[in-house]
Amino acid sequence: MMEIGVYSFGHLARCADGSLASTAQAIADLMEGVRLADEVGLDFFGFGEHHTRSMPVSAPITLLAAAGAATSKVRLGSTVSVLGTDDPVRVYQQAATASAVSGGRVDLTVGRGSSVDSFPLFGYDVSDYDRLFAEKLDLLLAVNADEQVTWSGTTRSPLDDALIVPRVDGGLKIWLGTGGNPGSCVRAGVLGLPLAFGILSGSTEDWVRRADLYRVAATRSGHDLDQLDIAVASHGFVAADAAAAKRRYFEYESEAFAAYAAEHGGLGVRGRSRESFDADAARGGMIFAGGPDEIAERLVEFHQHLGHSRHILQMDLGHIAQSEWLRAIEPLGTGVAPQVRKATGRR
C-alpha cells in the first residue's frame, strides 16, 4: 500500500507583474497549498528545511503545528529536519505539540541535511557533520521512548532523569532521511527506523540496491521487515497535458538550480540539459512529471520494485506561479492518488 503526497521547501512565486513574492508570502502560499492537499484527498504533506531566500522554509515543525490546526485529514511531517544543528529535546517537544494540535497526524523525518547552510548559521562546525547527527539521533530516540530521560554524550550537556513533555501516545514515528548514502541506509536498518529517500536522480535499479542494503541491515539486526517502511521524496509535476507538464517542469527545475548556484557560488549544482531531463522523466527515471494516468502508472511500477509505502513530489520548484502549483496539487489528489490506491490495495 502506498500514500501519495506533496512536499515543499517553500518557493518565491512569480507574480502577475513579473516580480517575486516575499519570503513571508512564500509561507502564506505554502499554507494555502497544504489546505488544498487536505481538500483533494492527498495522504501526506511534508515541510523541508533550507535556509535560503529561494527556499525559505527554515522552521518546518512550526509549520506542522500551523498545518495541523488548518487541516483535518492529511498526514503531516518534516521532510527533513536537519537534526545535527538542532536540539533533539526541542525537536521532540515541538513535534509532539504539533501532533497534539493535529490529532495525531504528525510524523518526523530527520537527516544530516542536503546542504550545510545551517552549520555556520547556528554555530556548528561542519567537520562534526556525522558525529552531531549520530549523537543527536540517539538522544531523540531516547526522548521518544521515555518521558524521563537520562543521557550523556559529547555534543551537549547530559540529562539526568529529565522530564520531557508533552508526550505522543505510542511515540512519534521517526524516519531517517537520506539522499541515498549507503551508510545512512545501513544505519536506519541497524536502528530499525523507517527510511525516507530523497531522490533527485538515478534509476529504479539504483534505488532498489539501496533499499536492499537497508533491509539486509535490518534483518541482520533482528528487526521485523513487516514493521519497517520506505518513503520516497522526488521531483515531479502533474498536469492534464503531459507534454506541457514536462516542458514547464524542466523550466522550473532549471530556474531552481540556477537560484541554488547563485546562493552557493555554483557549488553542488549539476548541469541539466533537456535531453538528460527527458531521460529522467521517462519510464524508469526518477522525475515524475506528466499527465495523471502516466504518473500513476509510473508510481505503481516503481512501488512494485521498491516496495515503498509513501511517495511525495516536490512540485513548487523555481518561481512557479502560485496558481499553477495549486493546479498541479489538485490532479495529484483527484487523479493520481485514487489510481495508486486501487493498484496497491488501498481504498
* CATH architecture field: Alpha-Beta Barrel
- What's the CATH class label? Alpha Beta
Mean pLDDT: 95
CATH topology: TIM Barrel
The run of helices and strands is EHEHEEHEHHEEEHEHEHHEHEH
Number of helices: 11
Low-confidence spans: none
Count of extended strands: 12
Q: Regarding quaternary structure, how should these chains be classified?
A: single chain
Description:
By secondary structure, this protein is an alpha/beta fold. It has one domain: Luciferase-like domain (TIM Barrel, Alpha-Beta Barrel). Helices cover 46% and strands 17% of the residues. The protein is built from 11 helices and 12 strands. The strands form 2 sheets. It has an 8-stranded parallel β-barrel, surrounded by 8 helices. Helix 2 links the parallel strand 2 and strand 3. The protein starts with a strand and ends with a helix.
Which terms summarize this structure?
single chain; 347 residues; alpha/beta; TIM Barrel; eight-stranded parallel barrel
At a glance:
The protein has eleven helices and twelve strands. By secondary structure, the chain is α/β, with parallel strands linked by helices. It has one domain: Luciferase-like domain (TIM Barrel), CATH 3.20.20.30.
Write the layout of secondary structure elements.
Layout (H helix, E strand, L loop, with lengths): L2 E6 L14 H17 L4 E4 L12 H11 L4 E4 L2 E2 L5 H15 L3 E6 L6 H4 L7 H17 L2 E4 L7 E5 L10 E5 L3 H10 L3 E5 L4 H17 L9 E9 L3 H23 L9 H7 L7 E3 L1 H15 L3 E5 L7 H23 L3
Parallel strand pairs: 1-2, 1-12, 2-3, 3-5, 4-5, 5-8, 8-9, 9-10, 10-11, 10-12
Antiparallel strand pairs: 6-7
Helix pairs in contact: 1-11, 2-3, 3-5, 6-7, 10-11
